[in-house]
Amino acid sequence: MRYLGCKDLLVDDIVSLIRERCEISESTVFFDAFCGTGAVAVAMSSYCHVVINDILKCCTTYAKGRLCNPSQIAKKLGFNPFEVLNNPKGKRKGFFATTYSPYCDRMYFSKENAERIEFCRHEIEKWKKKLSENEFSYLLACLLDSVSDVSNTAGVYGAFLKKWDRRALKPFVFRRLDCLTNERASVAGCYNHHTEDNIKNVECDILYLDPPYTQNQYGTQYHLLETLVENDCPSVSKITGSRPVTPYRSKWSRDIDVHVAFEKTIAETKAKYIILSYSNDGFMTPEFIKDVMCRYGKEESFLQKELGYKKYTNKKSKRDETHKEYLFFIEKKTNSDVVVDAPLNYTGSKAGLVQKLKKFIPPKEKISLCVDLFGGGFNFGVNMPYQRIVYNDINDRVVALIQMFYENDCSALIKKIKATINKYGIEKGNRDSYLKLRELYKINPSPLILYVLILYGFQQQIRFNGKKEFNNPPGNRWFNECLLSRCISFCRTMKNNRVDFISDSYETVLQTLGAGSFIYADPPYSGTLGVYNDGKRGFYGWTSKSDALLLNSLDAASQRGAKFMLSYVDDGNTLIVDWAKKNNYHLIHLDSNQGKYNRRKELIVVNYENEPIG
Fold this sequence. Notes:
- By secondary structure, this protein is α/β, with parallel strands linked by helices.
- Among the domains are: 71-176, no CATH class; 354-606, Adenine-specific Methyltransferase, Domain 2 (Adenine-specific Methyltransferase, domain 2, Orthogonal Bundle), CATH 1.10.1020.10.
- 34% of the residues lie in helices and 12% in strands.
- The protein contains 21 helices and 14 strands.
- The chain starts with 10 loop residues before the first helix and ends in an 8-residue tail after the last strand.
């Protein structure tokens, strides 16, 4: 069966990598999420259990047929099905024959071959009750393979040739498909789902991804084979005779959408090992792929390998020497070790400390509400396991920005960001276009424009003047692959929980909290000055007096039964230490290494006994 992107020529390299990097036993489950013709699934079936998936039923049927052992096929029929199906007199003029042959001016098959194909499909369906599921799949796989031998196409079925190819004029032969004779080979599971929508439901140890690389929609290219397997009579388009293909449209064949689908798949799979086949012709760059895989996998296990591959060419096509095939591998982290970073360079961010902070949070079973009191970039709150989270920040512009990621569909938001960049000609180092957009923000302070300004501003800082006007100068940064990856992960992860957004003083928020609440307080540090706490940005400044008021407010919340965690810099400030000792709170010093030039020590104060969440 001819198929776009078939891995027959690369299967040895793929299987070799899997066996080298993955622990495999007889109980191991290998999930081929875009099985296509089943080349990799068939090869892996010798070593472990195989689960297959493809949005096209013709693909899973063909792959399943290759995985079946046909030695005892159709024993209950009482006759050899291949003899019946190869009888040249066996013909049927029905929907298939009259739709895909010159009967209706479509030249996919000659009239005689179309009638022969339809006869075979009709007979196989007639025998279905006497066939096992594997036998039925095997006979359909044989039919799909045989159809390819006489099709008047260039290899796919998006269109037919206007002149008869010599292959198409040969008489149709129903031939036996070469497949496994391994007695233990079988299909442990078979799905026809969009991978990203069903991945969290698939129990597997190894995930293999071989998605579409380009805009080719496989539902369009193989509509005819899908109709043959489904054996229905769908409404078809006038010219190509294609069945409705909307249900088969893949996000993996559309720019931006593929990035979102890939991130979701890597994040939600239960597999311990992930292998991706991809090409430099694809929408996703190796940089983006690595960033996503290393967020959810162990960075030290990551591997990118280039494979030797000869791209198909013919006399009319130009040889493309730049085409490269890649394999990417990673061993996945446990979910508790994953940290999602906000797509913002927020001063005082706790992104580098989140993993350590998570070790000291209360068990989620005891908390009904988590409040990120000084939300900032939301690096803490977005990584929390609690079902309901409140994000608060005194800077209403930042609140609207974080809320934008929560309320918008991720693909749509990324497209809006890129459209805004293109519309206003924003690019790295383009000072004039940046300043014009900054002036526009004064008139239209939308979070979308603010985010674009942050992306291309000096060190991507968030800085306002006393009139709450964004005043960060242009810089030499841009919306790179790392930030794209962070945007997607941040946007998706936020939606896993209910998040409420408020912009109020911390005193007002704390007054409403009591038993069942967990407060995370990461205030500005009075001993340091940032762009948010010097009192010159249209928002309140932060002083040692502010520290004292916050501690009193936390005491009051504690007395009402609330649990809290206070983050602060370990700078010798005795106020925090003395307060913790006086109230018998727990003082915990954290080793912090948040960057080459940031070696500050951090401490946290909690008013509860630490009960690790595991």
